[in-house]
Design brief:
Layout (H helix, E strand, L loop, with lengths): L2 E6 L2 E6 L14 E8 L2 E8 L2 E3 L4 E7 L5 H7 L8 E2 L15 E7 L3 H10 L5 E8 L13 E8 L6 H9 L7 E8 H13 L8 E7 L17
Parallel strand pairs: 8-9, 8-11, 9-10, 11-12
Antiparallel strand pairs: 1-2, 2-6, 3-4, 3-7, 5-6
The structure holds flavin-adenine dinucleotide (FAD).
Length: 230
């Protein structure tokens, strides 16, 4: 690990170097497995490629800190020189389809690295409407993007991601073709997904959803896209 710094009070940025020659970074918002040594065991979890500098061989990962969990504990004390492993390649992230003119994002704090990475890559003729729920207002950040970005920061209120669900229920979709991206707690993701498909009438292929974690469940499956129950 070549550098560690606090981006915001609950977001730790780690830049790692190592055997990354030819590593497939999966594009904007891609994810991969990290294998971290915690209390004598190797713990595997899923994280986002916040940035990959192929020439310099540097991989940037933003670790969100939450109350519990071995990886959160590791990230709280991470230091330059610490060693860890990553999977051989990242899984593809999200690039809006060619016809889309706008994209709506619903994300919580741990999906912020994915949203920021996708926004980094959006073209100037896209409109991004972003809702992010955070437990601590000090974690609000600026987005960088060529696209027009309209960001709304929502303080956590009640169960995790309930504020995101409420935002989805009151949102009005922009005119023209567009897409919705959801990355947050599993139960809330399903609620937002149902609303977007059922009430807002967006076609399934325009919806990209994934559970980033599940309340009271350690190491929830990163294959949980919510698509089985609509
Ligand atoms: C595709 C994908 C990409 C991801 N990218 C990132 C990323 O770039 N940065 C990032 O910080 N996270 C990211 N995550 C989320 C991360 O994988 C989980 O939060 C992970 O479970 C954290 O591991 P842990 O060891 O800290 O907690 P775990 O051992 O998995 O869980 C312990 C407890 O903490 C709770 N918990 C887990 N995660 C959270 C959370 N985010 N907020 C509140 N409570 C939680 C669980 O419900 C459980 O009760 C990503 C997840 C997916 C599926």
């Amino acid at each position: 690990m070549t550098s560690v710094r606090e981006v915001t009070p609950n977001l730790v940025r780690v830049v790692a170097s190592g055997e990354l020659e030819g590593w497939n970074d999966g594009g904007p918002g891609a994810h991969f497995k990290v294998f971290l040594p915690v209390a004598g065991e190797v713990v595997m979890r899923t994280y986002t490629v916040r940035d990959f500098d192929r020439e310099a061989g540097l991989l940037t990962i933003d670790f969100g800190l939450h109350a519990d969990g071995p990886v959160t504990a590791w990230a709280r004390t991470a230091a330059v020189g610490d060693r860890f492993a990553v999977a051989g390649e990242a899984r593809p992230g999200y690039v809006p389809s060619a016809g889309a003119r706008w994209c709506l994002f619903f994300a919580d704090h741990c999906a912020l690295p994915a949203v920021a990475s996708v926004l980094d890559a959006l073209p100037a003729d896209m409109r991004a409407i972003v809702f992010v729920e955070v437990t601590d207002p000090a974690d609000e950040t600026e987005f960088r993007s060529a696209a027009e970005v309209q960001a709304t920061w929502l303080p956590e209120s009640g169960p995790p991601c309930a504020a995101l669900l409420a935002a989805a229920r009151s949102v009005v979709l922009p005119e023209g073709p567009g897409e919705v991206w959801i990355g947050c707690e599993a139960g809330a993701m399903r609620g937002i997904r149902r609303h977007v498909l059922g009430e807002l009438g967006l076609p399934r292929e325009a919806l990209h959803s994934r559970a980033y974690w599940k309340e009271s469940v350690p190491n929830h499956s990163d294959h949980d896209t919510g698509s089985d129950d609509g």
